[in-house]
Amino acid sequence: MPPKRKNEIAISVEDVGMEVDVVSDSGSEDEARRRAKNRRVKPQRKAKRVSSDEEDEEDEAPRKRGRKKKAKPRDSDEDDEEDKRTKEESDEESEEDRGKTKKRGADEESLSEGEMAALKEQVEEKKKLIATLRNKPWRMKRRLVLLKEAQEFVETFEGALGKGKGRKLYAYKVMMAKKVIKFKRDFENFKTACIPWERKIKEVESHFGSSVASYFIFLRWMYGLNMVLFGLMFGLVVLPEILMGLPYGSIPRKTVPREEQDTAMDFSVLNDFGGYCKYSFLFYGYFNNERRIGLLQFRLPLSYLLVGVGIFGYSLMVVIRTMARNSNEGGDGAEEGEFTFSWKMFTSWDYLIGNPETADNKYASITTSFKESIVDEQENQKDENIHLRRFLRVLANFLITCSLGGSGYLIYFVVKRSQDFAKMEKENLSWLEKNEVEVVMSLLGLVCPPLFETIAELENYHPRIALKWQLGRIFALFLGNLYTFLFALFDEVNEKLETEKSIRNATIWALEQYYANYSSHFNTTDVPPPNVQPADVIRGPCWENAVGIGFVKLIVSDMQVTYLTILVGDFLRAVIVRFLNYCWCWDLEAGFPSYGEFDISGNVLGLIFNQGMIWMGAFYAPGLVGLNVLRLLSSMYYQCWAVMCCNVPHERVFKASRSNNFYMGLLLLVLFLSLLPVVYTIMTLSPSFDCGPFSGQEKMYDVVMETIEQDLPSFIANIFTYATNPGLIMPAVLLMVLALYYLNAVSKGYQQANIDLKRKMKMVSMSVLLHVPSFSNISRVQDQTNDCAVYSWTL
């Protein structure tokens, strides 16, 4: 054949990229390189009109060289020579590309519209290549070369397309697209930087794993929730009263009584939240009962009631939304008992661990979990003395029930005793007698959980089941103590209501006698009000203030005990172990007392019940929410310091699950139980007659009915009357129950459909496995004639 024909055939073979399993001579390679150089040094105008086949030919060159290297195994010296040759070729290509770039920059003004459109398409193709380069099945060297060439091409010609008449709009769009992308990236970085305590939590997470960090994430979430509640309470209740209400000392409810003014600033009095604290905006009794205040005619009593109820509504919405988001994020669709060892093998490691000691503990924990799973499988097949096991479990539950009952009775007894102490002179009481209730409740919270854990050893449950029982018992302890405190507190409220009635009747009788005597003595009906200073007016006990003070003292004492426990139980313990280990009889680090571990479950449950007390007490003490914000803020720094300084990672590092709604479920239950006392107060009890925004009303909710009757049109009042009719409420409740039943039935149907689909998928997978032959005895045979590897698969 003629030489020209041979050259055409050689070019087509290279373009197609056929794999030739023979050793080509060096002359053909040199000739191919010369042809490639001649093609690259052609004039620029001609290169512009050529299609993208030549670029594909250049892209195929590294692939062809790679295939030749795979086809013929070479020595290490030959590989080094080939790599050096490839590097030299890439350098030559880059120099030639820079030369072409200069030529294109010089000739870009003389390009036609068609050429500009083709260049624009090439720029878009290069951008697409840059975006999808990581998905290409190419070698890393080729990716880097192509990425560099594409970036240089885009940087050179993307701005050049905007030069000339009619092309400025394109350049402006390109520039704005880059600006928008950069702005979005910077804004995402800014949002990440604005997340509070993110770096501190990541540091704890790297040392202790995600299980300990989950507590601090939950604490940060609670801080955000309380910040919103504080904004509502302070912005809609406290701030309007301070700015638009009557000043301090103008009315009796905002004035310290005359007999208490001498000791109103004593530390002992302020520590019990008496004196000036009692008659400040921290508590319910400070707020006035005027329907409208200030120039804005702000309805303070209505705002107080709506904010007090709206706090529960907002909290309920946030908790349910968080639970729904956690459920959507988590969940792998597998049942708990399925593929146990597969899940442990592939999903056990916590990739957020960054500390060697924690990593070693995690490694040991995974090993232990495998051993436990094997033991569980073996234990399921063994027979045991079921009667002895049942007896021990019944005995353990009996002892724990007695402990719960005893703690409840102790709290009830202490609260009753404190009521007797309240009738005595405070000078004759000791500090323990004044703060007996708070001290007893805090000590019960410290002593009972370890006692429950000791008794639970009799049950011999699996650790996971034992942990759930422990959490449930601590939850029952806190809940029982809280409601026992409330029941005893409402007994005190009933006594104060009786006292208020007698004081109110005596005050009304005294005013009637004053008006009668004045009119008869001066023989006139124009009787002026009595000239009595606000500090000298006889006051009622104001039971709302008493309830608010009780909750505030409980929160403050719980915070003090918690911080003192961390300081003594963790810090001093770590100091003793650290500095006395060298001169002690045994190893303090490995034995008793050793370093402490962070109690995740106890801290989270304490945080949950602290929030429950905030929800209940915020209605009687508006300043309690702000106090809780300061408590959470200090707890974040204090406990982070304690964990990093005094604690060691757990021996069994558990990975925190994204779909774990257990704590949120407890928080939702506490929210519902906290709502009940407040609703009972609003709907049943009579407010105090001389303090608070609802004084003078028969019930607290009468403020809403008064606003509807006086400030809204009559048809809206009729709508509310019909809406509160029991004949309309009962069908609405029945409809809601039917809707819940229908949704529950639909949910069960979907669950059954998922189970059927899983069963079908298992059947299909089993049938596929039965029909696919198993491959074994894979042998590699080296074909010496063609210098290539041939793999033979034997059934």
TrEMBL record:
The keyword Transport does not apply. One of its GO terms (molecular function) is mechanosensitive monoatomic ion channel activity. It holds the Pfam family TMC. GO terms for biological process: detection of mechanical stimulus involved in sensory perception of sound; vestibular reflex. Residues 542-657 form the TMC domain. It comes from the Eukaryota. The keyword Electron transport does not apply. Keywords: Membrane, Transmembrane, Transmembrane helix. Its main location: membrane. It is a multi-pass membrane protein. Residues 22-119 are annotated as: Disordered. One of its GO terms (cellular component) is plasma membrane. The chain crosses the membrane at residues 229-248, 301-320, 394-415, 471-490, 613-633, 662-683, 719-743. It is found in: Membrane. Residues 34-49 have a biased composition (Basic residues). Belongs to the TMC family. PANTHER family: TRANSMEMBRANE CHANNEL-LIKE PROTEIN 2-B (PTHR23302:SF62), TRANSMEMBRANE CHANNEL-RELATED (PTHR23302). This is Transmembrane channel-like protein. It comes from Cottoperca gobio (Frogmouth).
